Amino acid sequence: MSGAARGDNGDDEGPPRKAVGEQSKIPIHSPLVPSTKQTKHWAKKWRTEIASSSSSVLSTLIAVGRELAKGAIAPAGSVTFVRTISFSIYQKAKYKYSAAIGQATGSDEPLVVVNRPGSVPTLQTVACFAAAGATAGGIITAVACPFELTKLSAQISVLMAKSGTSSMDDAIRMSYQQKGTFKTAKNIVMNRGFAGLYSGFSLHLLRDTIGTAIYFSTYESTKQLLVKFQGSDSPTSPLSVAMAGGVCGLVSWACIYPIDSAKTHYQRNCLTKAKGEPVAMPRIQFFNGKMYRGI
Q: Are the C-beta atoms of 274 and 191 separated by less than 8 Å?
């Protein structure tokens, strides 16, 4: 071997070594740490669920004050969970209904029409969003009803304790006083059985089915009209989304508030009765001003 291949002392030289720390510059991709691209893909895929859960937490923290602290745990957890699942069901349902309507009518699917620049709401688009909303509201009622009943009993426990009329009713009312969220749920089961957690379920189902149908159909239709008036080529814009969100909330609550009032009245009465005692079902009166108190 020639001298060029040897060092000054005549020993063979190996391959050139990398500087210390140079190897640390090589990117290492861990399966446990997602890349930026993967994170963006995940966030885009689940954007509806992320947005709904974040807004639910924020709105609940703002709405629940110190005086309602006893009922804060239930709404904070239930509203976030219920809205996230509800939006997820709605997203999947509207694609199913859109495909079914397009196949049944032989025309463009409602979602295709909505995403077309310059389009306006049609009977098919409104029906698609209303059906998807009603589906989401009906399914989620099974989860939401126990949470709302627990929240209600925790928040009005003091009022219930002061409004007794008989010795038995007094004992039941007093049992709800100074209870936390989970102890309240346990107390409901003790007084009315497990089915007691679903007191007022029929009214709750009616409210959420109709309310969610109105909510989403109003939101999608209002957003579509605002985008047309703005002359935007995109089916969404920050302004249209914000304004449509405000309008749909007002319209839906104005329509279902009497149902919600009847539900609350019935559930409150159920909480003061023992298991097996009959509770009169209140009438839903849409043209009675008293049903709109507190709106």
A: yes
pLDDT digits (tens, 9 = 90+) for 43-63: 655 555 555 555 544 554 554
* CA–CA gap between residue 233 and residue 247 (Å, rounded): 22
pLDDT digits (tens, 9 = 90+) for 64-75: 554 444 445 555
Q: Is 39 exposed, middle or buried (0-12, 13-18, 19+ CB in 10 A)?
A: exposed
Phi, psi of 231 (to 5 degrees): 70, 25
- Closest to 83 (Cα-Cα) out of 180, 183, 216: 216
pTM of the model: 0.74
d(CA 70, CA 270): 20
Q: How far apart are CA 235 and CA 114, in angstroms?
A: 7
Contact 93, 136 (CB under 8 A): yes
- Using DSSP's 3-state secondary structure scheme, residue 267 falls into helix
Q: Pick left, alpha or beta for residue 11 (phi over 0 → left; psi -120 to 50 → alpha; otherwise beta).
A: beta
